[in-house]
Amino acid sequence: MTREETIICVGCPLGCEIKLILSDGDEVIEVGGNKCKEGKQYALEEFSNPVRTLTATVLTKDSSQPLLPVRTSKPILKTLLRQGMSIIAETTVKPPIKMDDVIVPNLLDTGVDVIATSDLRS
């Protein structure tokens, strides 16, 4: 018995609805609906190993700016987003901070840093 899963590709503005036909063991048997090979690759990766860039804000001390925007330096597994947000929520920074400074190194032992996306002046 097979089942079907639909993934909407975000690789380009076309937003193809890509259909994956899966076996009982959740192996991809067939991929269709993509208009380019990048769409097929996106759907396969999104199905087997979805990743996201985590964006958030951290609290600041001794600054006129109460929050500093941050993001992960690379995408992390979607399953780690909640844990990552918990760590970021407990983080407080003090100025001066420059854009791209590391705020949380090696988030959840992923090898990915949380970095500042703007400057923080005192």
C-alpha-based Rg, rounded: 19 Å
The average pLDDT score comes to: 95
Helix content: 10-25%
The CATH architecture assignment of the largest domain turns out to be: Roll
Give the overall shape.
elongated
**What fold name goes in the CATH topology slot of the largest domain?**
CPE0013-like fold
The ordered string of helix (H) and strand (E) elements is EEEHEEEEHEEE
CATH superfamily of the largest domain: CPE0013-like
> Uncertain spans, ≥5 residues at pLDDT below 50?
none
Beta-strand content: 25-35%
- Placed side by side, the strands forming the largest sheet appear as 8-5-6-10-9
Please tell me the total number of domains. 2
- In total, how many beta strands? 10
Major β-sheet, in short?
5 strands, mixed
Give the assembly state of these chains: single chain
Distance between the termini: 62 Å
Helical stretch tally: 2
Structural class: alpha+beta
Q: For this structure, what is the CATH class of the largest domain? A: Alpha Beta
Describe the model.
The chain contains two helices and ten strands; from the N terminus they run E-E-E-H-E-E-E-E-H-E-E-E. The protein is of the alpha+beta class and 122 residues long. Strands 8-5-6-10-9 form a five-stranded mixed β-sheet. The relative contact order is 0.16.
Précis, in short:
The chain has 122 residues and is of the alpha+beta class. The model has no long low-confidence stretch (mean pLDDT 95).
Topology of this structure?
Elements: E1 3-8, E2 17-22, E3 28-32, H1 37-48, E4 51-52, E5 55-60, E6 67-72, E7 76-77, H2 81-89, E8 92-93, E9 102-104, E10 114-116
Parallel strand pairs: 5-8
Antiparallel strand pairs: 1-2, 2-3, 4-7, 5-6, 6-10, 9-10
